[in-house]
Amino acid sequence: LSGTLSVPYKTMGKGRCCKDDEAEYNKVRDHDKDFKGPIENRSCTDIVCCLLFVACVILLLLIATVAFIRGDYRRVIYPTDSNGQICGRDVQNRTRLVFFDLTVCARMGLAAVQLGCPTPQVCVASCPTRMWAWLPAHLAETGGDLNGPVKTTIAAEREKMVCLGGRNAMEPEYQSLSIRDLVQNHLCAPYTLPSVSMLGRCLPKLLKGVGGRVVSSMTTLPNNVTSANNRSIGADTVRRGTNTMARFIKVYSYLQALFEDVVQSWQWIVGGCLLAVAVSLLWVLLLRYLAKPIVILSIVLFVLLFAAATAFTVYKYIILRGQSDSLEKNTKLTFDFGYYLHLSRTWLFLAIVSGSLFIIVLFLLIWLRRRICIAIALISHTSHCLGHMMSCLVFPLLPFVLQFGVLVFFIITAIHISSLGDPVMRQIDNETFLADLNFTSLSTEEAKQKINDLLTHLIPCNPNSTNVAGSMCRFLKYGDDAFGPYMQLFNIFMFFWLFNFVDALCEMTLAGAFASYYFAFKKPDDIPATPLLSSFWRCIRYHMGSIAFGSLIISIVQLIRVMLEYLDHKLKDTQNPVGQFFLKCLKCCFWCLEKCLKFLNRNAYILIAIYGRNFCSAARDSFFLILRNIVRVAVVDKVADFVLFISKLVIVCTIGVLFFFTFDGTIGNRLAFIDSLTPKDLNYNLVPLLLIMVFTYFCACLFLSVYNMGVDTMFLCFLEDLERNDGSAEKPYFMPESLMGILGKKNDPLLVKQDEKDVAEAAV
């Protein structure tokens, strides 16, 4: 055990031992003469976590199977009528839902989302296309005056009605009742309006501005449009009801316009995506030459920025020193910041601050100059590595496909779990219930309390049984399954675990491939034939448990963050500032904890890929290795992050500017063949441009994530190389000559001559 962990032990009592604390923190790893990169002779690690992961995946599949068998995604996607029947499934050839009286929804406000809109709802084959009101039809039926602009027969009036079951009033069961009885007994709708279908719901065209488009120019309703109790209905009332039901689907028209733009310009979008891939790949390969100029130029500009700020503030102080004597004597406290800009003391303070920062930055750069050079050399070395292992650049496509599959599986399972509940059917009194139905003036908590009270007093019913006189059995919403929340919570947790598992598998595989390159003494001759595939096989064969362990820790923290967000959402209306303060502190702490754990896990995966240790040992060793080189770690990490940020900015801006002037017509005005191919009459010219830029950013992140993992792996290998070796013939350095030159180190001359001799013999 002592030889494996390279940590000395001391005996205590009868066979008991403990670690030497000082050695634990300060002992560096000994040289291993047989070490030539990631070891092949290794064993399985963290088997318990691997078994736990497999068991949880099996349980997730069982839950998904139950959800697929018992649930029905059409309950969530398709509309449901008042009898709990799904339009298009339970009611064949009727895929649209019509609301009898949208003013009920208007009075409920947002409560309609939780309680459902209790006005009768029926499935119909198509949405109404004309306006109809019951009062003129009733007057015509009883021999009174027909107030409508066109007189029609009674049969024609009845055919315009929308009644329960999606039929009209000419059905035999309705012919014995007058139009007034049909409406007042809530068997038929009191009015219909020209409507459009939005996600299967028929919404009146009075809804203006859906998705930025005016659906109809009609803004008023005739006076004869009334509800079942003969109350006049205005256009604003119907519009409020329509807005309530359309709150979550107002983007429909936007999406339709976006879809049209995508279809019209799909060739350009595909071409832009391919160009983004080519530019990203080219930029990664060029970083071996551009990394040093980018960093040096940025550092010079950074220093010049503070120098210019210092010079400008001193200049302003000298100019205002003799001009603001009167203001200096009568200094006052004010929120007008322009006043302070006229005071010389303000510019003196800014000059002192900027000058101090300039001196601090200058001394830091002088002190860290060697470490900055190390960071630049590691970045260039990573580019050389990618030049010899181009397969690493396309490897992230496999994890991307796997993570996309995990996301799709999670969404489908979540939808089916959400549809496990049975329909909530309640006996609703048509007069008492609707008369007291007003939530618009209530706060969120008061509305929730009123909803709970209503659901408590409403009697469950069966739509197929006989209803109490004056009331109807109506569908309100789908209830929650007893185990549904727990199944959904486990589904969310497994989504995090599987997503992080795939991410960790990608990181460990790339770390093993990069380590194979670094520890190849004669590059590229000693590089394995297939370093990426070999590393991937080692991860799958030996370290599934360690990958599951590290991703489990991150997933638990992410699940806690989701629960904190849920609590914050639930408690945001409560008047408890102390509780909200502690909740926000917890959210901040767990955010920081997640970032730290991801950093530690990343370095642990690198050491696992190299030495084949279990997760805890690798995490401990990587932590102490970083702790012994904390300044180097900080400098290399920040320099690498800066280079990658500049790279993403250059790639995205290059593609964005090119296609902006293409769709703008600027390039087409100079090149006729480009103008002939450019799509015309787009609803939004920025749609294809934004899609191309989003894909470009994703593509740049995908390629540069490989680059970032390469820099981190090379850096840890570099630290291991420094601690294990001294450049002698017995313990030579594996680092490139550029790094040895920066550190003032070199390998034994006899070893170098032997290498040159071997190269010459190989050439012969």
TrEMBL record:
Protein's UniProt keywords contain Transmembrane: yes
GO MF terms held by the record: transmembrane transporter activity
Protein topology in the membrane: Multi-pass membrane protein
Cellular component, GO, one term: plasma membrane
Membrane-spanning residues: 47-69, 266-287, 294-319, 339-365, 372-391, 397-417, 495-520, 540-564, 642-663, 683-706
Compartment list: Cell membrane; Membrane
Keywords on record: Glycoprotein, Membrane, Transmembrane, Transmembrane helix
UniProt keyword annotation of Nuclease present: no
Pfam families found in the cross-reference section: Choline_transpo
Top-level taxon of the source organism: Eukaryota
UniProt similarity note: Belongs to the CTL (choline transporter-like) family.
Protein function: Choline transporter.
Protein name: Choline transporter-like protein
Lineage of the organism: Eukaryota, Metazoa, Spiralia, Lophotrochozoa, Platyhelminthes
